[in-house]
């Protein structure tokens, strides 16, 4: 069994801190910049579709397999995004 804290060297701590602070800060800067140029609804669509893009990239580049339930989940997300877009356009 695994117990206690892992022993991390200096390089591991630098990587962890980089991921925690620099990557997170960069993501929020990009997010806020995007909100200045596109609407919140458009940003929400992009955020909802990002797991779909990640799964497709993992399948294509890393040769990850996608189970039927995952594919059905992606289809459900796409249908949900389309429904929100259609309802949003009707209100305008």
TrEMBL record:
InterPro entries per UniProt: AA-Vitamin_Transporters, EamA_dom, EmrE-like
Subcellular location, record wording: Cell membrane
Keywords: Cell membrane, Membrane, Transmembrane, Transmembrane helix
Pfam families given in the database record: EamA
Residues covered by the EamA domain: 3-84
Gene3D superfamilies recorded: 1.10.3730.20
Membrane topology: Multi-pass membrane protein
Oxidoreductase among keywords: no
Keyword RNA-binding attached: no
GO cellular-component term (any): plasma membrane
TM spans (from-to): 12-31, 43-62, 68-86
PANTHER family xref list: INNER MEMBRANE TRANSPORTER (PTHR32322), S-ADENOSYLMETHIONINE_S-ADENOSYLHOMOCYSTEINE TRANSPORTER (PTHR32322:SF18)
Name of the molecule in the record: EamA domain-containing protein
Species of the source: marine sediment metagenome
Lineage: unclassified sequences, metagenomes, ecological metagenomes
